[in-house]
């Protein structure tokens, strides 16, 4: 009696295992990186960014150099660059989500980060002039840690420039201190 039930469960277990395996590989494809970047860009009125194989190759070559010591050191190459490190496995979308999470520290009026906080990863993600991106992920030689790099072409985060423009009609009250003068 137990045997027929097991024979019915095996295909279900195989489907479940295949689904879980797919999930573990998900969130690291070019489409995954683009989807989350373009959502953040759309939220501030910036056009979409596209995947670039040359930029992705640069990111992959560079993170492969980092995997030996697993230290986050910027390449100082020709592209804008965001790096993420995790002591375990981190997905590409988790890294980009972390960078986008810096949005709350970016002050549009002063075009600066809140004191004591970083926001440059976020501003690079939404930098209006960056139109190509390439990302790569590597497991470090310690067998546990992960480093992810996204590179942006052309680079952003130029001092004195804003990553995007907000029209005066779109500025939230928190950006203009909530006052309107009729003078």
Automatic annotation (TrEMBL):
<dbReference type="InterPro" id="IPR018244">
    <property type="entry name" value="Allrgn_V5/Tpx1_CS"/>
</dbReference>
<keyword id="KW-0611">Plant defense</keyword>
<protein>
    <submittedName>
        <fullName>CAP, cysteine-rich secretory protein, antigen 5</fullName>
    </submittedName>
</protein>
<dbReference type="InterPro" id="IPR014044">
    <property type="entry name" value="CAP_dom"/>
</dbReference>
<keyword id="KW-0732">Signal</keyword>
<dbReference type="InterPro" id="IPR035940">
    <property type="entry name" value="CAP_sf"/>
</dbReference>
<dbReference type="GO" id="GO:0005615">
    <property type="term" value="C:extracellular space"/>
</dbReference>
<dbReference type="GO" id="GO:0098542">
    <property type="term" value="P:defense response to other organism"/>
</dbReference>
<feature type="domain" description="SCP">
    <location>
        <begin position="28"/>
        <end position="160"/>
    </location>
</feature>
<comment type="similarity">
    <text>Belongs to the CRISP family.</text>
</comment>
<feature type="signal peptide">
    <location>
        <begin position="1"/>
        <end position="26"/>
    </location>
</feature>
<keyword id="KW-1015">Disulfide bond</keyword>
<dbReference type="InterPro" id="IPR001283">
    <property type="entry name" value="CRISP-related"/>
</dbReference>
<dbReference type="Pfam" id="PF00188">
    <property type="entry name" value="CAP"/>
</dbReference>
